[in-house]
Amino acid sequence: MEKEEKKNSGRDNGEIEIDLGEVFYQLGKHIWTIILSALLCAGITFTVCNFLITPQYESTSILYVLSKSTSITSLADVQMGASLTTDYKMVVSGRPVLETVIENLKLNETYDELKNSVTITNPSDTRFIEISVRDPDVKRAKKITDEIADVAADYISKKMDQDPPTIIQKGYTDGGPVSPNTGRNTIAGAIIGLLAACVVIIVSWILNDTIMTPDDVEKRLGLKTLGTIPADDDINDELKPGARRKVRARNA
Predict the structure, then answer these.
(1) Please, which residues have CB within 8 angstroms of residue 137's CB and are 6 or more apart in sequence?
(2) Is residue 5 part of a domain?
(3) pLDDT per residue as tens digits for the range 159-205
(4) What are the φ and ψ backbone dihedral angles of 157, each rounded to 5 degrees?
(5) What is the mean pLDDT of residues 39-68?
(6) Same domain, 252 and 164
(7) What are phi and psi of 230, to 5 degrees?
(8) Strand 118-121 to strand 128-135: parallel, antiparallel, or no bridges (unpaired)?
(9) Which residues span the domain enclosing 234?
(10) Per the structure, how many domains does the chain have?
């Protein structure tokens, strides 16, 4: 009686016990569904990346902040160079420079659209400024990044009363597409498909409260089974796969 009260108490509290062995059994039973889900999601991701997304190319030019007329003789000079690097980053991506580039190249885009395709970076502990431009046309990306470097250097020289930064690298046209990454995205799609199938299978199993076997009677109702009898009059039906049985139970 004490044992029965504990079981009933657990059910009344709404607690759900999950057997990890049963979880893995359910996943193993639906292994082909999981594999097909992973393959389907991977195939969809691969198709989208290759046929529906326009590849983006990137070209990069590099500016060196300290010109040949500047010699580093003290800590103050080093700090000045670092400070100028930060200032120049803002100038390169500023409206005056980018709007001049749009005008010079007769680009059919706004300042905001061009700015979103431009990335300005300063590698750690250096006085280099990298100007990267992404565009569906690699030659156009090179043309834009080179023009930005030229216009920025000229603008700094005229407006900031500084020696213009040195352009030490022009843009290039031999790079492959940087976006989308088809291989990485396809693997991610396969993993998402696999996890989604596992979640659906496990949740469906947890929410399924149908009593199918004598063990289910003991687990869900806390009762012991006396025996089973065929659902049909013909006793041979019990030999058929999936034949339903009536379960006769009594209290533990």
Answers:
(1) 57
(2) no
(3) 877 778 889 999 998 888 898 999 999 999 999 999 999 999 999 98
(4) -65, -40
(5) 89
(6) no
(7) -65, 145
(8) antiparallel
(9) 210-252
(10) 3
